[in-house]
């Protein structure tokens, strides 16, 4: 590495891209004292994305972003809004991630999805029932498109329980 940059020079012992390296590195700085480092890693990782970024790199970057920003939802101005926006980004990219997972890990169950999961948690805590209802319909529609039938029955049941719980509390 030259000039102190984490993303320049030659990487000799990894097959990771710079995007993957940085979002993975961010995972090491998740305690509250060092989370500002995680946010910087994620910001840099996101700035390196382009039309050629591997879909799974982007999926895991957005997943890490959701997790990191949600942890700071109460500690920074606009923290919850930033976390919700990260959830939206992740949900909007879910279909592309699904296609990439199915191509790379044919026949394997899809992993959990931080954007859907975290949005469901936010909805559970949301007092505005009209807003919850709108989000619930959006989440259920998107989850149906993304989760489909390729998810094991247990994962489908977990999602349906989560949706049912939110519907009962609307």
Folded structure, characterized:
There is one protein chain. Helix 1 runs parallel beside helix 3 and helix 4 packs across helix 6. By secondary structure, the chain is an all-alpha fold. 65% of the residues lie in helices and 0% in strands. The chain has one domain.
List keywords for this structure.
170 residues, mainly alpha, 8 helices, globular
Question: Short description, anyone?
Answer:
The longest helix is centred in the C-terminal third of the chain and has 19 residues, at 129-147. The chain is built from 8 helices and no strands.
Rounded to the nearest angstrom, the distance between the terminal CA atoms is 54 Å
Number of domains: 1
List the secondary-structure elements in sequence, H or E: HHHHHHHH
**What are the segments in which pLDDT stays under 50 over at least 5 consecutive residues?**
149-153
Structural class: mainly alpha
Mean pLDDT across the residues is 80
Radius of gyration: 17 Å
Biggest β-sheet: count, sense, barrel? none
Q: How many extended strands?
A: 0
**Per the principal axes of the C-alpha atoms, what is the gross shape?**
globular
Instruction: Give the number of helices.
Output: 8
How much strand?
Answer: under 5%
What percent of the residues sit in helical stretches (DSSP H or I)?
55-70%
